[in-house]
């Protein structure tokens, strides 16, 4: 009898925790990130460098075409965003820069790994992954 009651209590507490976190928060860059302008916009050499970095580091999770289907995905707690999607492409360069810089687990933070120039190169490359209409 006692165990039954504790199971019910645990269930109620658990459900309320889930409800409190619902709907799941989508990851947003702060509005201030939007005003940061991409110094390498339309720079084809930078975009090429970005592809190299992306292939080395991001493809494991984001997939070759950025679809969020990398080989590491089954081991992640969250499916990576599809970089070709309107949701990602609709964000400003500054917002994408901010997300790469800061991360949001399991998305790593690359602040300590890449120079600002390299992060802009990655942003340029992500632009080339936009779904073709
Ligand atoms: C360990 C796996 C992993 C690696 C490696 C990784 N990412 Fe991610 N990335 C994720 C996940 C998971 C998300 C979704 C995070 C979320 O929505 O909270 C994400 C989200 C993002 C987003 C935000 C998209 C959106 O929803 O707005 C960008 C931009 C991004 N990653 C870029 C990169 C770049 C560039 C690299 C390489 C330098 C990289 N990621 C490497 C897992 C990864």
Structural class: mainly alpha
In the CATH hierarchy, the third-tier topology is known as Cytochrome Bc1 Complex, Chain D, domain 2
CATH architecture: Orthogonal Bundle
String of helices and strands? HHHHH
User: Could you tell me the strand content as a percent range?
Assistant: under 5%
The bound ligands are: heme C
Q: State the assembly state of the protein chains.
A: single chain
Shape descriptor reads elongated
How many helix segments?
Answer: 5
* Parts with pLDDT < 50 across at least 5 consecutive residues: none
Fourth-tier CATH superfamily name: Cytochrome c-like domain
What is the gyration radius calculated from CA atoms?
A: 19 Å
- Helical content class: 40-55%
Number of strands: 0
Span between termini? 62 Å
Q: If you average the pLDDT, what whole number results?
A: 91
Report the biggest beta sheet as strand number plus sense, adding barrel if it closes.
none
Q: Which CATH C-level class is it?
A: Mainly Alpha
How many domains, in number, for the residues?
1
Notable traits:
133 residues; Cytochrome Bc1 Complex, Chain D, domain 2; single chain; binds heme C; 5 helices; mainly alpha
Structure description:
By secondary structure, the protein is mostly helical. It has a single domain, classed as Cytochrome c-like domain (Cytochrome Bc1 Complex, Chain D, domain 2), CATH 1.10.760. Helices cover 48% and strands 0% of the residues. It has five helices and no strands. It has helices spanning 2-20, 44-62, 86-89, 93-102, 116-127. Helix 2 crosses helix 5 and helix 4 crosses helix 5. The termini are far apart. The structure holds heme C.
